[in-house]
Amino acid sequence: MTGGTIRSQSPFGEDNAISAGYRLPMIVIRLPYVAPWNWPQFHQHFALRLLPGLEALEPERYSRTVRVGDDVGWLSVQPLATQPALELTLSDSLAEHTVALVMRVRKMFDLDTDPTVIARHFAADPHIGPLVAATPGLRLPSAFDPFEQAVRAIVGQQVSVKAAVTITQRLVERLGEPCLCLSASRTDSLTKLFPRPETLASAALDNIGMPGKRVAALQRLSAAVANGALELHADDGSDALVSRLCELPGIGPWTAEYIALRGFGEADAFPAADLGLLKAPLWGRNGLTPRELRARSHTWRPWRAYAAVYIWNNYGISSLQAKAEEFSSAPAAGP
Questions:
Q1: Looking at residue 14, which CATH number applies to its domain?
Q2: Any idea where the HhH-GPD domain is (predicted)?
């Protein structure tokens, strides 16, 4: 852990209304990175997917509720203007999990990647090289909670990001437990925890706004995670994770690869059937087929996820950034 300190006052000021009546201190930790690192990239990523109540976003701060075992609380992350580092603030209710949470947040914000390695890897590539040179230092945003991201990926099959967020917000509002903890945002309260796997597995979701087959896929995944039948980790690599996920009915290669990429930050995960990757302007008017894109991607190993980040960025720029990944939808799900 780097630069961990304990504060005896709220990071929002002693007179701030949201600070009154809650336990102090809070844990404040500096998380350094190798520059360049792009806060606007992460801010846009969060803004497109934000789940109010579970998350809060300000111009220079991202916050969310946290559950680790039986302990609940919140975390808040903001970039530091005077040094290449982020500042992580944790509620003191999570103190015994500080080391684990630092590791998760570093992964979430991709702070351990050396952007010069990425730049060198793609420098000679005629397609990705110019994108990296034009926007150096883009990182791989990944989820705080892999199960949460797996749910988002299934909900997001064949729909826009906006539609997927709407449905996921319903799940949080209806099934998420209340989080009675101090809000880490000046503008939005953090009041909800993401639903537990066992809760999603047994809930009545007929009117949630998804087709029956997608509801079934979501509940099969949730049940498999809850009862331990699915090992939701990437300790043995993204290919093994993708293989395990594709064994579940309703989860095809796009969903599985996207979970590996966004849920675990796997550097070589690559959802080759993603429409945003296939239709990006750098491929010309007709785009590519999944087979063509997959063939090209072999030369990008072992950093294919970063190629995806840059291609999505190219696609987003062509849409004035407002639709980055918005129609990055899955093909028909697997069996």
A1: 3.30.310.20
A2: 155-318
pLDDT of residue 3: 40
SS3 assignment, position 194: coil
pLDDT in tens, 287-314: 999 999 999 999 999 999 999 999 999 9
Residue 31 within a domain: yes
Residue with tokens 């969903």: 255
Q: What is the pTM of this model?
A: 0.88
Helix (H, G, I), strand (E, B) or coil at 7: strand
For residue 4, list its beta bridge partners. Answer: 29
> Cβ contacts of residue 63 below 8 Å, gap of 6+?
55, 56, 57, 74, 75, 76, 77, 183, 184, 185, 190
Given the structure tokens 């039948």, which residue do they identify? 229
The answer, yes or no, to whether residue 325 has pLDDT greater than 60, is no
Q: CA-based angle 218:71:48, to the nearest 5?
A: 45
Is there a domain that residue 246 lies in? no
Give the span between the Cα atoms of 215 and 105, in whole angstroms: 30
The count of domains in the chain is 1
* Bond prior to 25 in cis (omega within 30° of 0): yes
Evaluate if residue 256 carries a pLDDT over 80: yes
Q: What is the dihedral of CA 242, 99, 44, 184, to 10 degrees?
A: 130
Confidence at 189, pLDDT banded by 50, 70, 90: confident
- With beta carbons less than 8 A apart as the criterion, state whether 222 and 201 touch: yes
Give the model's pLDDT for residue 6.
43
The first and second tokens of residue 128, run together, are: 């990705």
Structure tokens at 181: 């903890």
Helical (H) or strand (E) element with 305:
helix 304-318
Helices (H), 125-269: 128-134, 146-155, 161-175, 197-202, 212-226, 238-246, 253-258, 264
Lookup: tokens for 123: 């420098």
